[in-house]
Amino acid sequence: MTSEFQSARHRILQDGWNTTCYQILNPGIRRWHRSNSVVGYVEIGRRRIVAGAPVCPKHELKQTLLEFERESGEVICYFGAEDRLFQQVAETSHYSFTVLGAQPVWKPQSWCAAVQQDSSLRAQLNRARNKGVQVKEWDALTATEHPALRAILASWLQTRGLPEMHFLVEPDTLGFLLDRRMFIATQEDRPIGFVTLCPIPTRKGWLTEQFVRIPDAPNGTVELMLHTAVEQIASEGAEMMTMGMVPLSQKTPRNPTDPAWLKITVNWVRQHGRRFYNFDGLQYFKDKFHPDHWDPIYVITTERQIQPKTLYAITKAFTRKSPLLSIVQGSWRALKQEARWLMLGSNPLERHRH
User: Fold this and answer.
1) Whose CA is closest to 147, among 203, 179, 191, 92?
2) 165 — phi, psi (to 5°)?
3) Core-most of 45, 126, 190, 193, by most CB within 10 Å?
């Protein structure tokens, strides 16, 4: 690890507040440093796409924004920003925003109580246990680059409709688990799934960065992994946890001042994007654990009104290639996957509904 990486990690562990603060350490993300601040971003054309929000003490947020934006001299887009950044810029005329989606948030103790009171959730946990599924936390040394976990991740990625994504959703974190926590599901001593947690330090919280299983894992495996992880952090005094954002979630209202082109794009994606990404299924899965509340997640830009070029740059930040090429590749992957599901007579994306 370089000294720059260590400096960024130290700042995150001291002042990280945004849910995605730890993701600025992901491969491919550049970092801007000042004495008490670090900003993770990727540069696409004349736009800088920031990973969430600056990591800094709350009282220094305004000054950090001013310095970063002044030195950048480009359009800045804060992707995945939360309420703290939104409240800082809401009354400032040279910013615009749109609601990207929503994320469910729990106190870990609330999660545990909700599971105990929900008979259908308890039944899911028991289905997995009755099939011999056990969940234990592995230490970082054991889990790092473990071949069985790599095989699980590879098989899971094959079921995704979209090509492999990066930026804030980097799938390959098995090489760096220093501050992450890994809860592994096994059946007859064979790993069949894992949940990865990332720290949200100043909120004494955790983000479920990944919950991954092999396609033929017993029903309830993911639920059992998540519940075991939450029980553990609850016993340690954690104060919040989230399962991350559901894009285009209808749990929070959209910005009524969104430009017409953006409204049309969002509506089109919701209607036709299900073959690439199961928005409703993901929201259903997270909602069944009875969140304490859903928080809005924003895209905030230094434009008077968000522009199509900014949406293009955001997409390219995740795909690392032409968004049009990604759509073509994603369509082909989705068609092949749907053909496999037809041959098998089932769709694993819908298994968690039952």
Assistant:
1) 191
2) -110, 160
3) 193
Name the residue among 287, 296, 352, 297 with its Cα closest to residue 106.
Answer: 287
- Distance between alpha carbon 302 and the CA centroid of its chain, in Å? 24
Kindly give, in sequence order, each residue whose CB lies less than 8 Å from that of residue 63, ignoring residues fewer than 6 positions away.
none
Question: Minimal CA–CA distance to 318: which of 117, 160, 166, 122?
Answer: 166
Backbone angles phi, psi at 98, to 5 degrees: -140, 155
CB 120 within 8 A of CB 214: no
Q: Where are the beta strands (DSSP E) in the chain?
A: 30-34, 37-44, 47-51, 75-81, 96-106, 133-138, 181-187, 190-200, 205-213, 240-242, 246-247, 293-301
Answer yes or no: pTM beyond 0.85: yes
Residues 29-70: pLDDT tens digits? 999 999 899 999 999 999 999 999 999 999 999 999 999 999
The string of pLDDT tens digits covering residues 116-166 is 999 999 999 999 999 999 999 999 999 999 999 999 999 888 776 566 777
Q: What is the largest CA-CA distance in the chain?
A: 59
Non-local (6+) Cβ contacts of 147 within 8 A are none
Question: How far is C-alpha 328 from the geometric centre of its chain's CA atoms?
Answer: 24
Three-state SS at 105? strand
